[in-house]
Amino acid sequence: MFTHAKLNFIISILLILVFVAPSPNASSTELGGVFFEDHVFVGNTLLSKRGAGLFRYLGIIKAYVGALYVEDGKQIQELLNNSAKRLEIEYFHNIKGDDFGPATNKLLARNVDPEILAGLQDRIDKHNALYEDVQPGDRYSLTFIPGKGTELALNGEPKGIIEGDDFASAIYSIWLGKNPISHSFKNQLMGIK
After folding, report:
1. Structural domains in the chain (count)
2. Is the Cβ–Cβ distance between 187 and 178 less than 8 Å?
3. CATH number for the domain harbouring residue 105
4. Is 106 a member of any domain?
5. Residue 165 within any structural domain of the chain
6. What count of other Cβ atoms lies within 10 Å of the Cβ of residue 149?
7. Is residue 54 part of a domain?
């Protein structure tokens, strides 16, 4: 049987554990049950999370969550230029790798001049061929590394790099361009309230 003193001691220890114990991921942000780190490195460059958001397909179906990382001090209009950046997207549903290409082509056509798009087509095709099937919880990252190109990785495993600042500007326009996949999602990624 617990004495009053022992019971008070046990309650005190439990309260200390609850309020003092570190959170499991103190340097991250949770969104829709998914955690995104507040900072990532691209080479030796530290990137900070600009914003994070939830994309709903047809406005109702939770499709994925994403976070955009950029160098500190970058203005919104600079996000599509040739500075280091990363977009991470974690999926809530199965998607076939072959389905990414047609969606990419459609969204690029909404944001990139047809003449520029024609000049990029070989690299776009190469990029689209890198996609693999995803399951709930899988995460793609799209990282622009200045001087190298745009790296696509699945769950941290690089799949390939596509060269060119022009390609990077085009591919990021899917989420950050004038006609993005979703204006609401774009604003969330850019940290615009």
Report:
1. 1
2. no
3. 3.50.70.10
4. yes
5. yes
6. 17
7. yes
pLDDT in tens, 109-160: 999 999 999 999 999 999 999 999 999 999 999 999 999 999 999 999 999 9
Nearest alpha carbon to residue 167 among 182, 189, 146: 146
Q: How far apart are CA 193 and CA 184, in angstroms?
A: 9
> Domain of 175?
24-190
CA geometry: angle at 85 spanning 84 and 89, to 5°?
A: 160
Q: What letter does residue 83 receive in the DSSP assignment? A: S
Residue-wise pLDDT for 3-15, tens only, equals: 544 434 334 333 3
pTM of the model: 0.82
Question: Angle CA(185)–CA(187)–CA(188) in degrees, nearest 5?
Answer: 65
Q: CB of 161 within 8 A of CB of 148?
A: yes
* Backbone CA torsion sign across 146, 147, 152, 154: negative
Strand partners, 36: 29
Contact 42, 33 (CB under 8 A): no
Residue 176 phi/psi, 5° resolution? -120, 0
* CA dist., res. 21 & res. 40, Å (int): 25
Does 47 map to a domain? yes
Residue 17, beta-bridge partner list: none
Residue 44's pLDDT is what?
Answer: 87
Cβ-contact 39, 48 below 8 angstroms = yes
| Distance (Å, whole) CA 156 – CA 138 | 10
